[in-house]
Amino acid sequence: MSVAALPKAELHLHIEGTLEPELAFALAERNGVTLPYADTEALREAYRFSDLQSFLDLYYALMAVLRTAEDFTALADAYLERAAAQGVRHAEIFFDPQAHTSRGVPIGTVVEGLTASLDRAEERYGISTRLILCFLRDESAESALATLEAAKPYLDRITGVGLDSAEVGHPPAKFRAVYEEAARLGLRRVAHAGEEGPASYVREALDVLGVERIDHGLRCMEDPDLVERLVRERIPLTLCPLSNVRLRVIDTLADHPLRAMLDAGLLVTVNSDDPAYFGGYVGDNYDGVRDALGLAPEQLRTLARHSFEAAFLDDDEPRRARYLAEVAAHAF
Q1: Do residues 157 and 111 lie in contact, with contact meaning Cβ atoms separated by under 8 Å?
Q2: How is residue 51 annotated by DSSP?
Q3: What are phi and psi of 327, to 5 degrees?
Q4: What are the tens digits of pLDDT across the range 245-267?
Q5: Which of 63, 109, 193, 304 could form a disulfide bond with 205, CB atoms 3.0-4.6 angstroms apart?
Q6: Chain-centre distance of CA 332, in angstroms?
């Protein structure tokens, strides 16, 4: 039985990573962009990766089709429609402004296009949303600060900041200044850490950047003291199982440490990361770990409950309580 109907929040989702081949070709035609692939099937075949960098190369290249606010609205609408079909009730969506401003698309175009969709997400799809601006960690710290400065006119639409892209060689401490400024502005803070980078990056993200959630964080399991701290402080980890397999972080879903992490008492959640590229949306990730790890209904319910507990809904506790009640009432 699919876990699609189980109410859940998605907390680790890159909107640019929801660009399905069909939409990529439609936007390319609309914007006069030529893609180096014969058709959607040829492009889908390219979605085979040896590591994180091989994925990022294609990920950034395909962004060339995203030019106008309407393109970003179409992208978000397509994600929300799929997410609703897989039980998502709340989504906290990452976007990468530097990947767009570097090719001449203003940050305002991106934010206005996305929020045109997100502002009507609850009415159309039954999904509440938050928007999280991510800095590219393989760009300079100065570029991150400039991006945050450019985003200031739109902060009423942005809940928090994150840190993504190539992890190895780009420790969290590189971005201390921009995270200090984000905290001063009252923004929530998350960061990718412990995916390809070491467990020490998780600790550094907590201690130097002051993050409230860790995106990925798999390698915390290599440091028992860190695991104990994450459990004690109830720091959420936003795991992305299908992504981990596609990017060769782990060999198979059966090797995924999610079950061990649950058993250790970690506040882990399941998410889809870049679902168009990694073979499935969030419900597909739930199905995958259920089958590969033999998760029981109560463990799946725990994952869903964690997702709402970890969500940035502090300003709307009645909504959080309502979502948690939906999880408790769900019958498998």
Answers
A1: yes
A2: S
A3: -65, -45
A4: 999 999 999 999 999 999 999 99
A5: 193
A6: 26
Q: How far apart are CA 325 and CA 332, in angstroms?
A: 15
Q: Are 136 and 52 in contact (CB under 8 A)?
A: no
User: Could you give the C-alpha distances from 172 to 13, 59, 191, 205, 236, in angstroms and in order?
Assistant: 20, 22, 8, 5, 17
CB 130 within 8 A of CB 92: yes
Report the C-alpha gap between 267 and 264 in whole angstroms.
9
d(CA 320, CA 328) in angstroms, rounded, equals 12
Token readout for 326 is: 């939906």
Catalytic residue, chosen from 195, 196, 212, 222, is 195
270 close to 241: Cβ distance less than 8 angstroms: yes
d(CA 160, CA 304): 22
Residue 128 structure tokens: 């509440």
Least confident of 71-75, 179-183, 328-332: 328-332
Among 214, 125, 209, CA closest to 171: 209
Nearest-angstrom CA–CA distance, 36 and 155: 37
Q: Phi and psi for 166 in degrees, rounded to 5? A: -60, 120
Which 3 state secondary structure label does DSSP give 281?
Answer: coil
Quick one: pLDDT at residue 48? 84
Residue 330: CB atoms within 10 A of its CB come to 17
Is the separation of the CB atoms in 246 and 279 below 8 Å? yes
Known catalytic residue at 195: yes
The pLDDT value recorded for residue 244 is: 96
Q: Would you call 325 helix, strand, or coil by DSSP?
A: helix
pLDDT tier, 10 (very low <50, low <70, confident <90, very high otherwise): very high
Which amino acid appears at position 317 of this protein? E
d(CA 275, CA 269): 16
d(CA 80, CA 126): 9
